[in-house]
Amino acid sequence: MSQFCPVYPKPKKNRSSILSMFFGKRRSWLDGLFERSYHMKMGEIHLPGLDLYMVNEPKLVRQVLVDEANDFPKHIMLGKALKPLLGESIFTTNGLQWQRQRSMMDQSFEATRLKVVFPLMQAAALAMQQRMDTLPDGGPYDVDMEMTHVTADIIFRTILSIPLEGEDARAIFHAFTRFQELAPKLVTPVIFRLPRWLSPWFTKRKSAQAACQIRSVLERFIRPRFDAFHADKSPYTCPVKNEAQDILASLLAATDPETGQGFSFDELVDQVAMLFLAGHETSASSLSWSLYLLANSPDIQERMHAEVAGVLGTDSATEPTFSDLRSMELTRNVFRETLRLYPPVGFFARQTVKTEQMRDKIVPEHASVIISPWLIHRHRELWQNPDIFDPDRYHTASAKESLKCAYLPFSLGPRVCMGASFALQEANLILATLVRRYRFEALPGYSPIPVGRLTIRSENGVNLVVHKRG
Fold first, then answer.
1. Whole-number pLDDT of residue 236
2. Three-state SS at 441
3. Torsion of CA 158, 170, 441, 445, to 10 degrees
4. How far is Cα 119 from Cα 411, in angstroms, rounded to an integer?
5. 147-170 mean pLDDT
6. If we measure between CA atoms, which residue out of 258, 261, 263 comes closest to residue 225?
7. Alpha helices by DSSP H, 327-384
8. H or E element, residue 140
9. Pairing verdict, β 50-55 and 368-371
10. Whole-angstrom distance, CA of residue 188 vs CA of residue 424
């Protein structure tokens, strides 16, 4: 059995100085972690701009995210980093505004079921395979770029019924990369309470430009649909089999249960941008890490190939059906283990609205409370061999218990990711398509460099050797 220990930033022996934290967190939010971070139940750091409490104990995590979620709203720092792209979307709002938006978004996702969007996912997976079939056999390839393309394509097809190709695909990829790199640099000055004259105005400008580029692509496709809907209230059917609504159609039809009003155009763009960020950026990250893990665990990769071939056959022209995905247990566990080792969002930031007592600490009003899937999924007391890639662990009683209390890649409670099932279906389909058609190998002398920004991505891509299977 594979005992592959994948790369991760080795924690420092002791806590960094405030100066080291300042420069480290500007690059990656993983850089401030030290050895005790992976053992502690709760820790605290007092910085010039805020009091920060890191919570790892499952009981306290549940208190913050589930039982007393209203007392721990999302942190205002998120808005500072994400507002240029996401505006007032459910990813950043709180209180009554969030409740209104969430109820309307829930209506949309109820109307757009997984079985409905499956053919759209299939079409994007087939387009991915056609692109990859043009690669030279046995050559190195940055799979991170392709996973970003296919997941963005799936989001475009399922939200807008349009494939994402050519210049739009390249523009969005590069704009998202820039936006990700700049996010920590926008938040860090707030944390360290720098004077206004040291505000990173040039960084803000570049971030706003990247966000504007992404939003302009989205607006170009949303505006005609929005205007047509409000002109005659006519329904829209997705071109696939001419029978199913896409997500934008259901968002246009969603109404506030109290006022009966729908989303305004700006609100609609905010929500679609949020779905785009959450639905493609997080999935792209996880799929890239999945391929890296499989490339370095050839025994697991071959078992997974055998499983997929046993369900689908070896002919890559045979498309999976909706029910086929349920038969691929190892494929699901490979992705589950990837989400444990490289959770797409490594840190959830919350803020107290009143003084709280947590363990032996008094947490003041307006303090920052951080829940870190990255730390909880690798916690030395909550998982056995936490740094090892082992998708077979989920057959053990220990891992089943850990799943109940120490596994939260999609968060927990009222703000749990509404697209979790969508992401799991998408990931299983893409991984099955890839492993049936190709074999992935580690590139000698290369290792990805994990960085924590908006998501856990590799700073230098995910370069692998790709072979077509016979």
1. 47
2. strand
3. -150
4. 28
5. 84
6. 263
7. 329-341, 373-376
8. strand 139-142
9. parallel
10. 33
Q: DSSP secondary structure string, 283-300?
A: HHHHHHHHHHHHHT-HHH
CATH numbers and ranges of domains, the chain:
18-468 (1.10.630.10)
8 with 450: CB under 8 angstroms?
yes
CA of 125: how far to CAs of 121, 204, 425, in Å? 6, 36, 12
Tokens (6 digits) for 150: 């296919």
For the chain, what percent of residues have pLDDT higher than 70? Answer: 87
β pairing state of 456-458 and 450-452: antiparallel
Contact 348, 66 (CB under 8 A): no
What is the three-class DSSP state of 187?
A: helix
DSSP line for 228-265: HHHHH------SGGGT---HHHHHHH---TTT-----H
Cα-based distances in Å from 319 to 218, 246, 377 = 30, 21, 34
Which ranges constitute the DSSP H helices of 43-165?
Answer: 58-62, 76-86, 95-111, 114-132, 143-160
pLDDT tier, 373 (very low <50, low <70, confident <90, very high otherwise): very high
Lowest-pLDDT range of 62-76, 83-97, 133-147, 323-337:
83-97
Contacts of 45 (CB under 8 A, 6+ apart): 15, 52, 54
Distance set, CA 449 to CA 27, 29, 289, 342, 461 (Å): 12, 13, 11, 12, 8
326 Cβ contact partners less than 8 Å away, ≥ 6 residues apart: none
Neighbours of 360 (CB within 10 A): 6
d(CA 140, CA 126): 21
Q: What is the pLDDT of residue 228?
A: 87
Rounded to an integer, what is the distance from CA 39 to the centroid of its chain? 25
* Chain segment 384-410, per-residue pLDDT in tens: 999 999 999 999 999 999 999 999 999
**In angstroms, rounded to a whole number, what is the distance separating the alpha carbons of residues 56 and 59?**
9
- Buried residues in 206-237 as b, exposed as e (16+ CB within 10 A): bbeebbebbbebbbebbeebbeebeeeeeeee
Q: What pLDDT does 162 receive? A: 83
Q: Quick one: DSSP state of residue 408?
A: -
